[in-house]
Amino acid sequence: GVKRDIIIFYSNRTEERIVFREELDELAEKTSAKIVHTLTKLDEKEKKNWAGETGYINKEMIENHLANVTKTFFYIAGPPKFVEAMQKLLTKDVDILTKDVAVENFAGY
């Protein structure tokens, strides 16, 4: 029931490794949430068959999907090195204030 835009950047190595993809896509269909899948380890054949984003989450990808980056609250969850890299990206490269970033380290499943 939250009335705000929610955009989830979800990075995986390959399409087969996207955990809870059906559930996330269903959530996006039922709400105003948007899921941005990005894959980082595709071979040339897989790249031709993948319509979503490729590569690591970066400044350009964030800015392409967010209307107003500086008025956005970010929540980062994932392995500690990923969380650290995303915090650095947001606060150094995208100029997001530290108070607008929440983090949760999740070592795996």
Describe this structure as you would to a colleague.
The chain is of the alpha/beta class. Helices cover 34% and strands 22% of the residues. The mean pLDDT is 91. It contains 4 helices and 5 strands, in the order βαβαβαβαβ.
**Amount of beta strand:** 15-25%
Q: Could you spell the SSE succession in H and E letters?
A: EHEHEHEHE
Helical content class: 25-40%
Helix tally equals 4
Radius of gyration: 14 Å
Task: Summarize the entry for a quick read.
The protein has 109 residues and is an alpha/beta fold. The protein has helices at 21-30, 44-49, 59-65, 80-93; strands at residues 7-12, 34-39, 53-54, 74-78, 101-105.
Write the layout of secondary structure elements.
Blueprint: E1 7-12, H1 21-30, E2 34-39, H2 44-49, E3 53-54, H3 59-65, E4 74-78, H4 80-93, E5 101-105
Parallel strand pairs: 1-2, 2-3, 4-5
Fill in the keyword field for this structure.
two-stranded parallel ribbon, 5 strands, single chain, globular, 3-stranded parallel sheet, alpha/beta, 4 helices, about 110 residues
